[in-house]
Design a protein that fits this description.
Blueprint lengths: L1 E2 L2 E2 L33 H7 L8 E4 L11 E4 L22
Antiparallel strand pairs: 1-2, 3-4
Length: about 100
């Protein structure tokens, strides 16, 4: 699997056709949750030395503003996109 220069050999993805509570057809899910599971895409990138940090960053822009693109980053956080740089980050645990 290769995406934007990130490459994993023999990584398997699961195809999802139906989801709970969904009234729309699903065409797949890319799991980005923290996990030690060998099927975790981000974990495999990290374990294979493709990324230096086991992190995913999302910058979701206003969908009505076509002059700025939303971005996703693997293995890094772009501090230039955050008010206060990386000091402006707030961490929380989503593991319950």
């Amino acid at each position: 699997m290769e995406m934007g220069g990130l490459c994993l050999k023999n990584h398997k993805f699961v195809a999802v056709e139906k989801i709970k509570g969904g009234e729309f057809a699903a065409n797949g899910i890319l799991g980005l949750a923290p996990s030690r599971d060998e099927k975790s895409f981000v974990r495999q990138l990290f374990d294979n030395g493709v990324i230096d940090q086991e992190v995913v960053s999302l910058n979701l822009e206003d969908p009505n503003d076509k002059s700025i693109d939303s971005t996703i980053g693997f293995g890094e956080i772009d501090g230039s996109q955050i008010i206060g740089g990386e000091d402006g980050l707030r961490y929380y645990s989503n593991v319950g």
